Amino acid sequence: MEKKNIDWANLGFAYTKTDYRYVSNFKDGKWDEGGLITDDTVTISECAGVLQYAQTVFEGLKAYTTEDGKIVTFRPDLNGERLENSAKRLEMPVFPKDRFVEAVLETVKANSAYVPPYGSGATLYVRPYMFGSNAVIGVKPADEYQFRVFTTPVGPYFKGGVKPITIRVTDFDRAAPHGTGHIKAGLNYAMSLHAIVDAHNQGYDENMYLDAKTRTKVEETGGANFLFVTKDGKVVTPKSDSILPSITRRSLIYVAKEYLGLEAEEREVYLDELKDMAECGLCGTAAVISPVGKIVDHGKEICLPSGMEEMGPITKKLYDTLTGIQMGRIEAPKGWIYEIG
Ligand code: PLP
Ligand code: COI
């Protein structure tokens, strides 16, 4: 199959339309058979549940070209499982995870000309999502839904690729205790938009959100979980009921323990402890691991010893091992890699 003529190495994290997308509709209590279409537009009621009350949930994963030229995706079953949980929390019907995985593989296969070549630094981002599509004017769940999957080739989430970024501790909250921070709902991102625009205006790359109740514990950023390395080489990730259970973070904890022989733990991380950390990174599908060089807490600078030039040494080992597994250079744990047939 011939690849599209795209300048893969210079792609940013932006939308490029590809040829096919998957669509399935939920009506009269059931999902239809679904299938691929070429129309990239959506026509719905002006009063659709998604437009009025933000009833929408989504996922994000990537397809990679491996060293030996295969196209693969990374743990799509976990994205399917998470979408099921997100849908339940917003009173939406579940799109079964087995069908989710099939839809993802089918959409990637149909767009294989857009999967960036091995070594290009780019990947194919896959965006499954679903939304309430029929008219809803009282505050209640929709009766009809659409599930879609589109793909877009992307480069690094942060300009500069793996160069360390500077983040600030924000006074805005992203998620309430017992709220929706643990699911991937569009509403969580809508409420982070003002905070991110403000952070950018002040010269920061991202926001560090704290727990809304006590404002003493580290939660996550608008689009990634945190990963820290202590001065004695232990990998630590924040534990909270109001952060998204990142598949990248869960995979990295496994990689740290099982591939690198490191100690790794998920526990509450206090803002006060950050000055004692050796390394910090943001982990997620889009972010992969983006190193953090500096955290600014209301004018007080916390400079990570790993500096502003490159990733810390343990973050680098984690990054190389994870991307090695995703690109087929390192043997993956059983069940992590799904080949596109
Ligand atoms: N946290 C938030 C708020 C996110 O949007 C994402 C991205 O999906 C993540 C964390 C990372 O999750 P994952 O590693 O599953 O992509
Ligand atoms: C992802 O990493 O897949 C996300 O959805 C995060 C978003 C900031 C692009």
TrEMBL record:
It holds the Pfam family Aminotran_4. The keyword Ubl conjugation does not apply. Pathway: Amino-acid biosynthesis; L-valine biosynthesis; L-valine from pyruvate: step 4/4; Amino-acid biosynthesis; L-leucine biosynthesis; L-leucine from 3-methyl-2-oxobutanoate: step 4/4; Amino-acid biosynthesis; L-isoleucine biosynthesis; L-isoleucine from 2-oxobutanoate: step 4/4. SUPFAM superfamilies: D-aminoacid aminotransferase-like PLP-dependent enzymes (SSF56752). Signal peptide: none annotated. Its cofactor is pyridoxal 5'-phosphate. Keywords: Aminotransferase, Pyridoxal phosphate, Transferase. InterPro entries: Aminotrans_IV, Aminotransferase-like, B_amino_transII, BCAT-like_C, BCAT-like_N, BCAT_family. One of its GO terms (biological process) is branched-chain amino acid metabolic process. It catalyses: L-valine + 2-oxoglutarate = 3-methyl-2-oxobutanoate + L-glutamate; L-isoleucine + 2-oxoglutarate = (S)-3-methyl-2-oxopentanoate + L-glutamate; L-leucine + 2-oxoglutarate = 4-methyl-2-oxopentanoate + L-glutamate. Its EC number is 2.6.1.42. GO terms for molecular function: branched-chain-amino-acid transaminase activity. The modification N6-(pyridoxal phosphate)lysine is found at K184. NCBIfam families: ilvE_II, PRK13357.1. Belongs to the class-IV pyridoxal-phosphate-dependent aminotransferase family. This is branched-chain-amino-acid transaminase. It comes from Candidatus Blautia faecigallinarum.
